[in-house]
Amino acid sequence: MKARKWAFWLLCAAICMCIAAPAAAAAEAAVIRIVLDGKTIKSDVAPYIIPRVNVTMVPLRVISEELKASVDWSQADQRATITSHDGKIIRMVKGDTVATVNGDIVRLDNTVLLNNGRVMVPLRFVSEELGLQVNWNQSNRTITMLSAAIDHPSDGTVTPPTEPEPSPGPDASTGMRGAWVSTVYNLDWPSAASYLNPVKQMGEFVNLLDDLQNMGMNAVFVQVRPAGDALYPSKLVPWSKYVTGVQGLAPTYDPLAFMIEEAHKRDMEFHAWFNPFRAHVDAKTESLAPTHVSKEHPDWIVNAAGKLYINPGIPDARQHIINAIMEVVNGYDVDGVHLDDYFYPSNVAFADDVTFKTFNSAKIQSKADWRRNNINEFVRQLGNSIHMANPQVEYGISPFGVWRNKAVDKTGSDTKASITAYDDMYADVRTWIKQGWIDYVTPQIYWSLSFNVARYDKLVDWWAEEVKGTGVDLYIGHSPYKLGTKEAGWQSAQEIVNQLEYNRKYLEVKGDVFFSAKDLRKNTLDIINVLQTYYSEQTK
């Protein structure tokens, strides 16, 4: 029985040889012939290659019947169930890019397909789950399969072919090409429809990565702490409701481990994105888990305009956030730790008078300066913790795009923004850069080249000068979510290209990050083709 199981391995590997064969041979119309232990296997649907993804599809029923495995196809569920002679149960659903093997989830290179009434499965999955020893003969387009029960000729060896590698993503040397992936409100991933359905949830993320890489992205910045919670098993904070629909309810897999593995399979960087001080998206606490910070430490929480924030002025609260982030740094193979601009909320009252009096050992006179010092201490201490634990992990922050207006501070940018990072969010980004507390900064420059209040080019000029000579990398945050809106400059996807071209003026600009994945995938104004064309030209 095991002999025949191993035979299936070789079939799959051999079909990989078909993919790796020269393009001229791949274009031939000749049918691929399959021979198992000297017997020709007949099929009305031959194996074939899907060019777009370079994946070979195998007629599962024919192969399974030859190997004495039972196959069941549920038309209602569009689900194939294969039970091998040794009891292995494989389930695949049409449209899903993951399958289950004895209950374990396995990624598929391509979804199950129906062709002339036959169930077709991707080669990689088949080759990982069943085995054959195979020899591919290009001249007569024949796959010869030998099970372990057949003695190999003494003068011949079987070389297991390898499946062609997927098209590589952009070389890291070309710079950062990232996309933010928001999990709050299930904006980018996972969908609410995937709650308690890990197969669907993982399939969605696989598709998301494939789409982004196809556009030219080589990194993802995934929100793993949307609101005082976690998309990973934590001893400090509860599971996010955006995974299972209920805060504190654990999924049956580790989403963070899965996402990192899938990103790295594609040579894409994975940056774990944390919202540091947002505790909850509203003021309702009934549905929050008992381990949520608002329940365990209500004295740390400030209700600001109907949203809950962790008070940055309380040292223990800041350390709690650092500890939660360090769980990821110490437990996962992340490429970076990424913070957004959720420090103090802007343009709303923030009740911290008591905190100002209680936790102000430095006797700072101005509450604004005290708030900035709180954030500075948090940024500095977190950076020290990350770099001591793992110097290879990059630490970066994405602040609001305007530090200060020139009218308020002569060293600020030539802008007239109504809010600024320094004055309204108490984010003293200049100090973080000059002190070298962070490895990169990604200002959110979400305005066009023709938006006079805060022009894109003027802001890139300012930020490039700000990081010059500091060793801090500059990535620019872009706003494809504005494409097609009425705001000045966003009526054509060429705006994004013009911005990317402008960045090339500066050696300090090391790459770009787009907000967000869903807005790229919507393909407004043909942005996908625009980015593909632009990036392909840059790599020539």
Sequence-ordered SSE layout with sheet pairings:
Layout: H1 2-20, H2 23-26, E1 33-36, E2 39-41, E3 48-50, E4 55-59, H3 60-66, E5 70-74, E6 79-83, E7 89-93, E8 98-101, E9 104-107, E10 113-115, E11 118-122, H4 123-129, E12 133-137, E13 142-146, E14 176-181, H5 198-215, E15 219-225, H6 241-244, H7 255-265, E16 269-274, E17 278-280, H8 293-296, E18 301-304, E19 307-310, H9 315-331, E20 336-339, H10 353-358, H11 367-389, E21 394-397, H12 421-424, H13 429-435, E22 440-441, H14 456-467, E23 473-478, H15 494-503, E24 509-514, H16 517-521, H17 527-538
Parallel strand pairs: 1-13, 14-15, 14-24, 15-16, 16-20, 20-21, 21-22, 22-23, 23-24
Antiparallel strand pairs: 1-2, 3-4, 4-11, 5-6, 6-7, 7-8, 8-9, 10-11, 12-13, 17-19, 18-19
Helix pairs in contact: 1-4, 5-7, 9-11
Rg measurement, Å: 27 Å
Question: How many runs of DSSP E, i.e. beta strands?
Answer: 24
What is the 3D form?
globular
Q: Which strand order spans the largest sheet, edge to edge or round the barrel?
A: 14-15-16-20-21-22-23-24
Name the CATH superfamily assignment of the largest domain.
Glycosidases
What's the total helix number?
17
Main beta sheet: 8 strands, parallel, barrel
Number of structural domains = 2
Can you tell me the CATH class of the largest domain? Alpha Beta
Signal peptide: 1-25
Domain Glycosyl hydrolase-like: 176-485
Keywords: Lipoprotein, Signal
Region (Disordered): 153-174
